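We give the chain.
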Amino acid sequence: MDIYVYSDESGVFDKIHNDVYVFGGLILLGKDKRDICARKYQHVERTLRSKYTASVELKADLLTNEDKGKIYRSLNNEYKFAAIVKEKQVNENIFNDKKSKQRYLDFVYKIALKNALSNMIASGIFSKKDVERIIVNYDEHTTATNGRYELREALLQELKIGTFNYNYNRFYQPLIECLIDVQTNMCDSKNVTLIRAADIIANKVYHSALENFYFNPSNKNIYIKRFP
């Protein structure tokens, strides 16, 4: 089985002017589930299309709160994940240069995804023995082009190889040792339906976290990891 991940971000990673930064997205188990979810989401978009200019992309920054709510509820039965960063508590040095920021955001992303997959395995939603590949798709604005390869390596290390903490002389076992590969794809949300779905999820979590960083989502199919 291949696992398909679609994700986007909400907020700006800049602690001077912003309080919260969020990654959010979908975790879909297998190609059939991915395709069914995409068709359902396209149907929801079609029901709303007449309200908006034909050429515009139906993303969270354009939609009314009512329509965003309808779209988000259409994803209630799908497995979702999110990372919420409380920016004021992030170490000041991380913001010193682009590489440091990207490395930190890669860390946040991989830990949030691992947290979701780990909880799904523990709940018996899928068996890690059945997983062959994890295909991670994210909005092209999420990271620089050359950062795509670093994110792939970070995910591969965390999920298949395992990591070593030199400060504590401790090895952390990989989550899915039988994993064949992790793929990362930068996507244009105009062309990839489920990236738009991830945009709605990230936006929903972002605004909920602005109101209450420790909010408790009513939908239990979403796995949230908070940082730092």
Summary: The mean pLDDT is 93. The radius of gyration is 17 Å. Helices lie at 31-49, 65-74, 98-122, 147-161, 193-211. The chain is about 40% helix and 25% strand.
